[in-house]
Amino acid sequence: MSNLPKIAWIGLGIMGSPMAENLLKAGYTVTGYTLEADKLQRLAAAGGTAATSIAEAVTDADVIITMVPASPHIEAIAYGPDGILAHARPGTLLIDMSSITPQTSIDLAKAAADKGIRVLDAPVSGGEAGAVEAVLSIMAGGEQPDFDAARPILEALGKTIVLCGPHGAGQTVKAANQLIVAVNIQACAEAVVFLEKSGVDLTAALDVLNGGLAGSTVLTRKKDNFKNRDFQPGFRIDLHHKDMGIVTDAARTVGAALPVGTLVASLVASLRAQGDGGLDHSALLRGVERLSGHTTES
Questions:
Q1: Which of 50, 196, 260, 265 is 20 to 30 A away from residue 150, measured at CA?
Q2: Half-sphere exposure of 49 (CA within 13 A, CB side)
């Protein structure tokens, strides 16, 4: 029998499935629940246990990890008679790795404390590739002892793991991350169209740019998407639209100006309104192409 904590995993999407599988590879027992039957089958095939309800997944768990799209989803799975807080044991550690509003995380921590359940907000950055390769950046908010208890689990999922402050701090840092990523993708997309319309070899140009000060993880991860116009979702425009709403709202609350971020948020919203919400966020390139009268769009 393993002495490792038993884990319940709620939410087996693009990110959640490979993350749960990495915990299985690290020797953890994982019981998962999600709404998609094929994702439950995938977990079972990897050695996990598929649950038929949240209650079944969390009742015997030592640690519960959630990875769902947005604040309403967390509220739906956490609260109510069928939710996590109604069925998790006192002393359980709940690690929410979703990207939600800081206030949602703070409210969840307070509600969970009333049930004797400890909470960390621990959103991630790195996209699908980072999830598969277990090299995610994990930004946590909560109490130091809970972070220390969670760290061995998080080390099976990510490479950079930092406690950023109290409850909600992880989500605040994640919002800043999404601001930087969106602006970076937009800048890369504009450069790609500029280079192509100028007749420059795009592969050569992106290689040399990525070796200098203009280089970034975004460019490393997304340059093939740009070159091949491959916008299969690793992180959907729909989700980045949600995240840009989080960061612009939070910035307004604290009185921080986001002049460039607000513009890019509008460009993300525009792309979504044009039907591209299900594409990878590198599809910001499509918006630049449309504005430039570029003809490579499929």
A1: 50
A2: 16
Alpha carbon distance 106, 112 (integer Å): 10
- What are the tokens at 177? 């991350």
Mean pLDDT in each 10-residue stretch from start to end of the chain (298 residues)? 90 96 98 96 97 97 97 97 97 97 97 98 94 97 98 98 98 97 98 97 97 96 96 94 96 96 98 97 97 73
Report the distance separating Cα 31 and Cα 16, nearest Å: 13
Tokens 């109510």 found at: 80
Q: How many CB atoms lie within 10 A of CB 176?
A: 17
CA–CA gap between residue 230 and residue 151 (Å, rounded): 35
pTM: 0.91
Q: Shortest CA distance to 96 belongs to which of 126, 76, 114?
A: 76
Residues 6+ apart with CB under 8 A from 61: 5, 6, 7, 8, 31, 88, 89, 92
Q: Which residue in the list 39, 174, 222, 223 is annotated as catalytic? A: 174
Say how far residue 151 (Cα) sits from the centre of its chain: 18
Please report where in the chains the tokens 């061995």 appear, as a residue. Answer: 152
What is the signed CA dihedral for 79, 82, 86, 89, rounded to 10 degrees?
-120
Answer yes or no: 174 catalytic.
Answer: yes
